[in-house]
Amino acid sequence: MKHLSFLIFSIANLLFVVSASAQVAAHMKLWDRKYRYPRVNSVEFKGDVPQLASYDAVYGHGAMWENEWMGFRVYVDYRQSVDLYGKKKPQLELDSINFYSSRELMAAGFGEDVLFVGPSIGAGSFRGYEGGKPTFVEPVQARGQRVLSEGPDTAIVEVYATDWKYRGQTLQFRQRFTALRGHREVQVDVWVEGASDQEVFATGVQKLESNNEGYTNRRGVVASWGSNIPDKANPDLVERLGIAVRVDRQNLVEVKEDDLNYLCLVHPVQGHIRYWLVAAADMQEQGEAFHNSHDWFHWVKRNFSD
């Protein structure tokens, strides 16, 4: 949902940070009723804070990072889902847009939110796995986010939760997203202190709402391509995109699918799990772009598989 406060801005007074070459950036801001949205390095909430209270306390609903091709955000609430922002041309936009684009901005050449995550695993979100389905990182004693590096060469966002009650254990959870200058993919590292190497968790990519096509291989790569409507208040804004995740072979348990997702079940090795996330929006007009599933899956197989 686009935030109503964005209406106070005009295209003329937005300060776009445009990149002439490959760069990355990350930031987190607090919601401010006076529309100042101060940047912060970290935020933490008690585990029993209601979902909307934490979700709305952070401007954009969570920490954000971007490379020149795509933008990302991870929700600060219990879902910790990863959402995607597509771009028409290679540049940095999120410090001004914060996922809250408009028709005027899109007409001027800027991007927008391209993914409706809903109850799915989204784009490489991390989950528990119980009863044959992905589960959220809850209940916890506290959860938070922090920006460890804002760019321009390395952007790092970290998500954490303390005292996660999972399958009869108490785990200390930490997830780090690292974007590097000149690299389309995002590296994701997860630490689950207290979990044995036999414990099972999940990541993966969602199936798109319409015209979904999928690609999986048993070596730990899952991908999807299709269409969806990110903003249900504007059903004419249909977005096409591709998503892919590749899991480090030493962490892979199996690849499978359910009604909503293509999943990689994973286990830690000495408390650590690593995977990579990559995405592409059909709206991209410049650089290496993808406009159909054939080209997207071909790129995934050639450039993203081990």
Written description of the protein model:
There is one protein chain. The chain is built from 4 helices and 19 strands. It is mainly β and 306 residues long. It has a 9-stranded antiparallel sheet with strand order 2-9-10-11-12-19-16-15-14, with helices on one face. A hairpin with a 3-residue loop joins strand 3 and strand 4. The chain is globular, with a radius of gyration of 18 Å.
What tags apply to this protein structure?
306 residues; mainly beta; nine-stranded antiparallel β-sheet; five-stranded antiparallel β-sheet; 4 helices; 9% helix; disordered N terminus
Please give the structural blueprint:
Elements: E1 25-30, E2 42-46, H1 51-57, E3 58-66, E4 70-75, E5 82-86, H2 94-97, H3 103-107, E6 112-113, E7 127-130, E8 133-135, E9 142-150, E10 154-166, E11 169-180, E12 186-193, E13 201-206, E14 210-217, E15 221-228, E16 239-247, E17 252-257, E18 261-266, E19 272-281, H4 293-304
Antiparallel strand pairs: 1-3, 2-9, 3-4, 4-5, 5-6, 7-8, 7-13, 9-10, 10-11, 11-12, 12-19, 13-18, 14-15, 15-16, 16-19, 17-18
